[in-house]
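dude i think i finally got it to work??
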Amino acid sequence: MKLVAGIDSSTQSCTVVLRDLATGATVATSSSPHPPTTPPVSEQHPESWWSALQEAFAGARRIVETEVSASYSIEGISVAAQAHGLVILDDRGDVIRPAKLWNDTTSAPENAALRAQLDPQTWVETVGSVPPAAFTLGKLAWIARHEPANFARIAQVMQPHDWLTMQLTGEAVTDPGSASGTGYYSPSTGQWALEPLRLIDADIDWARRLPRLISADETAGQLSTAAGRALDLPDGIPIGPGSADNQTAALGLGLAEGDVVVSVGTSGVLYASTDVPVLDLTGQINGNADASGGWLPVWCTLNGAKVLDTFARLLAVDHAQLSELALQAPVSDPHRPVLAAYLDGERVPDRPQATGTLAGLDTSTSREQLARAAYEGVLAGLVRGLEVFRDAGIPCHGRLAITGGGAKSPACRQLLADLTGRAVHVVEQAEAPAAGAAVQAAAIASGSDMRTMMHRWAPRWDAVAHPRPGTEASDLMARYQSVARWSGLERTTKEIPCAQ
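look at this
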């Protein structure tokens, strides 16, 4: 049996999916956890990712050997990983300090200072986005300001995907999708954009410190002898280009133009597929490249599942009970509480120091209404993104899918349908980023075109929720935006005055 391996190294864990090269069927899945993080400081040492990858890979192979077949081979491997993180190496290739992750917001002041040096149009034309605090660029500026000794040692600047691919191949490479989340890459030209890096330090030869760019259809290298020993595999296995998690998830889902995906995980993400670059001068949409030679405009909020965790704790229920409570709230309830869910600050809109705001409470407010407000607070921030997508001319006429942990919640599915007025689908393909990385591995192993392989292995989309009459979606969204405007109050620099 010939298999390919897709790896997803996320904030929480590493997942390995093994798929049959002949059919695309998932044969085994195994995960291993990463150390937990709590923003605003969110850091992990890259060695923990490599350890988790080895454990997850061994777990997936054990499943194959005990439940499927003792006779098999791994024909290709590819890596998906969390975007935007900063990994810095010295001239010996050693990691200098723990990686700052995408949801580390400590670099917000440095990022704001960088953004102020160029006008929004220049930023968008240069790197496809007005870089939010999550992007790698601001984290690099933070190192320069707060850890100058570490900054002086930097010989290589990487993201998590780049570093893990290097552990497999020994090569410092990256792909367009991963590079799109740095703030110093141009998705429209496919080249590094060094001007933003020169704003940090104009005397450094930045081109020498960045990974080599490869295309979406290019092999990153071959499994090295050292990596083969660590994974108990023969060396020489081809390694796919890999990409960021959203980009490989789009491959795993078989995303077609017009389809829209809402992912509710640690963060909230909205993305779609286009054949032309998207340039949003407001800075709300990240005009990323995808993992198949096209583009993947992304809207990303900082607050996702942790909001639901918080309200489950406050209401002393588990997640299943929180979902039940939310669905027990009256369907037609135009005066229900509204939550602007900026509990850990926010990325879109760019308010890294903001706090959440719950409005519309009175003495009759019920637990059911509070549970519903928690879900709607997370989802409304993403539905707002869908409105901005349409205004930007991004095709959104196709299917609407929900993925991530939120896809398992009946309340999340139903309330998304209510707020959008559209049917909501779930996709039979579990672990979409890892499954998409396996698509890359299969394309490289078989010599196939990436898009051809994506559509060949496209999973089924099933409608699981339809909008309920009387949900007042437009009224809720108007109230949400009004509350969200007040949620820009920063926890350390502004106070609400008290009556004297």
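Residues 489-500 have pLDDT under 50 and may be disordered.
im so relieved honestly
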